[in-house]
Every structure is written in C-alpha cells, then in structure tokens.
Amino acid sequence: MSVFQIQIPDSVEINDFELRMLIAVKLFEDGKLSSGQAAEIVGVSKRTFIELLGKYNVSVFGYNYEELEEDLENV
Predict the structure, then answer these.
(1) What is the pLDDT of residues 5-58, one digit of tens each?
(2) Nearest 5°: phi and psi at 43?
(3) How far separated are the first and last CA of the chain, in Å rounded?
C-alpha cells in the first residue's frame, strides 16, 4: 500500500478519520476502490463504510438521486 503525506492548514478543522473517509469515499465514487478497499483505508468494516456512504451523498449502487429519477421517468 502506498503512503502519502499532505499538509493541511490548521484552519481546516478535520480529524484523521474524516480525512480518510473523504478520500476513500471519493475514490469509491470514482470507481477506483471497491467498498472493501475503501473500508480498509478508513479502518472500518465494509458494512460500516457502506452505511456511512449516505452521509457523503454517495450511493452504494453507483447512482445519484438525479440519475435515478431520470431512469424512473424513462421507464
């Protein structure tokens, strides 16, 4: 596993868990990580990661709300 070091200004109030979660969620949303890989980065179970996705407005199914509405209208 690669290790990256970044510097974040002190004015950004974020803890280690939140930063890991933001990165993992974005990589999952972009299809670069599986839910299991993302969960491992965050240090939680796969189930917990999937449950937390809603907090970040990310669907486990790869759909956002607008895309789902469009598909339902086209049915």
Answers:
(1) 999 999 999 999 999 999 999 999 998 999 999 999 999 999 999 999 999 988
(2) 90, 30
(3) 43
